[in-house]
């Protein structure tokens, strides 16, 4: 039996290396996308979690955080809680702020600066370098050390507006992921003029214990207790929607690859059907045939999974795909190199389980084979089609699936994308069934139409062969349909985002110019001095000067939101807030509600929501505050930008000359409205760059699917093709036959994909995207891409046909026509 398995499975692989490699490649591409997106999603979440906790140890169980994170709170609170904690709990005070390092002349990177008691910290084990008798001044992460090595001899670090030079002998490397720097807490407090103030108190335990119960009653107006579970939940919420959407898109790519695999197994079954009949004739049984085919699928799935996992890890580690949103730091994400074992196991399981599902129908067909199939030319056809239903009932069922999908997919349900996903699933299933039904009818219509013209007989033969096997060719067309639909749907999504973003910029920023700090732009840190804004407001050369400040990690009720600070118009109350409509939809913080926020000057303040407005910026929701009120409660020295409108009495050249003088003096940059839009577009493109990669991958998978289908057609029909060549069909006619087959499947699949995307795009934009992020986008559909298809389809088909035609040319007539 072992020899039979080896001969049937590995013997086939050995004799059909190109076809096997195509199948494994298709699986591996889908799995690689899944693995790489999951790794990057995990790294993004890990970076948020580390920045929340401060790169903690596994023994961390909770913490007290100062309500005023910018200035911290008095460390006298340590004594209050010290008497209330269990013996096995140790308190570790921490003062955290942000610093910047100069990577290149035009690039400054923001990093967390963490002040700790170096001798007591469980995170750092101060093992001095060999030959040293003193503890280093700084402890830095492995990734930060790699960045510092790019500097020549020293690095300039700016902390609390003080520039410090770090020499190589000043620091020791901590083998920890992330980008951060740790230094003595008293020194950091001194540098920031925050003596005896801390931002958090860690609770570190050496054994498992329930800390929460003993600390819940310890309250202070300046401190808030957060358990480890609460912080983990908050980190998950912060990136939950993004992770879900990436998982969905990557799984659609996996689905496309398994449609290809299912098509491959259909061809494999047809090409080996006689072998199963022979096995039955020499004493095997139906169960052995079933298991034999299933094991072959598992082997291909396992190989594809292993290759896909390795390729996915390679993609993730080369930063080819990066998960980016408004709360994550791309440099922090890229500093992680750990690969969670759960993602690898999931990728392998999906690969094997998907291969089993893709082959189960054909495995069942091997169970039904009889020895008489050795002499039967093809299966006896009947009028039944799907689940034993007639063609008419199957057509009605497919339409019902599509209608049900549309209804369910457009259900409005905040933070729930399950209805949208069910809707997408129903629509795809309905279209797949329609593809199987439509192929024979379309071939008949084409045959009647072309019979009126002088059409090459070779092309007619190719089309007739498609009509004979609607299931196999329907799978190929469905693979192309899914890829086309994915491309058009994602393009529709990104185009809709682009149009909505441009509309938002035009509506929110009517200023002529914006002053920005280009060096700090990548870090997201404000870098335009408040003092400059105050000076410019008195300058008569500008008609209006407005501030703009962003805090992407503004905490309300334990959740992260984005705070925008600017001058409210006269019709708004300066002492109340405005919220974005997506915040109201997602978290029910709406007009008329009140929220309590932590401020620097007045501790906790309750503020009323006076209005909601479309605000296309944060996927978590945006809170808007007037600058005059912000000044009363917060102390900042830098803005993100200053918006300037020119004076009508000055020419544009005079205005730009004034701005050039300002930017030179303060090392800033001014941009006009067009450049501002471009800046926002670059940020959006960075977020959606992963979708572009997924689109390309889907197209590659569909091309592989069609190529594999044609290769299996040549293998299965080898005797027929050899006979045609023997009676005089030349190479050009053979190519015509293959080309017409491919052209029909590509055209049919793309047309079906366009129709499918016309239904899926609204579901994705107004269903899934609306429920996940709360936005109502301006719908756009890529009609320009549709117009280009009549030119692209024949060219794509020609390229696809080259490999199958090569195998056709290599066919030996004498070998194929020889009967044993």
Automatic annotation (TrEMBL):
UniProt keyword annotations, A-Z: Cell membrane, Membrane, Transmembrane, Transmembrane helix
Q: What is this protein called?
A: ABC transporter permease
**Membrane protein topology class:** Multi-pass membrane protein
- Compartment(s): Cell membrane
Q: InterPro entries from the xrefs?
A: ABC3_permease_C (IPR003838), Membrane_comp_ABC_pdt (IPR038766)
User: Which Pfam family is an annotated match for this chain, by its short name?
Assistant: FtsX
Q: Does the keyword Protein transport apply?
A: no
Transmembrane segments annotated in the record for this chain: 21-39, 248-270, 290-316, 339-361, 394-414, 420-443, 694-714, 789-808
The ABC3 transporter permease C-terminal domain covers: 248-366, 697-812
Organism the protein comes from: Leptospira vanthielii
Q: Does the keyword Membrane apply?
A: yes
Which residues are in coiled coils?
none
